[in-house]
Design brief:
Strand order of the largest sheet: 2-3-1-6-7
Number of helices: 7
Helix content: 40-55%
Bound molecules: BIS(adenosine)-5'-pentaphosphate
Order of helices and strands: EHEHHEEEHEHHEH
CATH superfamily: P-loop containing nucleotide triphosphate hydrolases
Shape: globular
CATH class: Alpha Beta
Structural class: alpha/beta
Number of strands: 7
CATH architecture: 3-Layer(aba) Sandwich
Length: 190
């Protein structure tokens, strides 16, 4: 049987990577295996080899056509991976020139996801998580701007469902409730 392709998204700092890692531990205990892939890492490997980005946070500011080319290369490589695959990426990317679709038609047609997960939480919690994460060069924005991005992600996810027939699952990753979020994701992936 063909494996499942699940895409997990959420605004930067919402904690999607943290939720994924916890959910995969739970699934492993039950013998359910997923290969976890970070879409941004695939893009960054190409960007770095071409000398156009020195860290992953610089990619958002690259020219739109360059970002689109990096997306396409990443999607083609990820589409070849067999079995159950969980792809950590973005429903949309906030660039200096506006929102860029994270999963445009040419990416969706390569991957054809079964489920797109949106990880969300309160805007103020995201703001605080970004401020306390010193390992990344997070864009500085207020909670109203984060709210707009989360709202835009819901809207664009509806378009992804229309193109592929995938389902859209919304998971809340609230402060102190990581266990609940990871349990919810594990059940979605089973
Ligand atoms: P990517 O690497 O995915 O960057 P990111 O969104 O910043 O993702 P992170 O993994 O750093 O954040 P996260 O939300 O997973 O949070 P984390 O678990 O670390 O992408 C990098 C770049 O690639 C993008 O900027 C873009 O340029 C490009 N890219 C990727 N996909 C693309 C696409 N499709 N198209 C175009 N470009 C694309 O957690 C954050 C903090 O919160 C941690 O400190 C954690 O401890 C804390 N935390 C988590 N959960 C909780 C909780 N429940 N309670 C309290 N604290 C919590």
């Amino acid at each position: 049987m063909a494996g499942k392709k699940v895409i997990i998204t959420g605004v930067p700092g919402v904690g999607k990577t943290t939720v994924v890692n916890e959910a995969l531990k739970k699934l492993k205990e039950d013998g359910v295996e997923y290969q976890s892939i970070n879409f941004g890492t695939f893009m960054f490997e190409v960007a770095k080899s071409e000398g156009i980005a020195q860290d992953r946070d610089q990619m958002r500011a690259l020219d739109r056509t360059v970002q689109k080319r990096l997306q396409q290369l990443a999607a083609q490589a990820i589409a070849q991976i067999p079995g159950n695959v969980l792809i950590d990426t973005h429903a949309s990317v906030k660039t200096p020139k506006g929102y860029l679709a994270g999963l445009p038609e040419w990416v969706l047609r390569e991957i054809m996801p079964d489920i797109v997960v949106l990880v969300e939480t309160d805007n103020d919690q995201i703001l605080m998580r970004r401020l306390s994460d010193e390992t990344r060069m997070r864009d500085k924005e207020g909670s109203r701007s984060i709210a707009e991005h989360q709202q835009f992600n819901r809207s664009i996810a509806a378009a992804y469902a229309m193109v592929t027939g995938c389902t859209i699952k919304i998971i809340t990753n609230a402060d102190f409730l990581l266990e609940q979020a990871s349990q919810n994701l594990a059940e979605t992936l089973r």
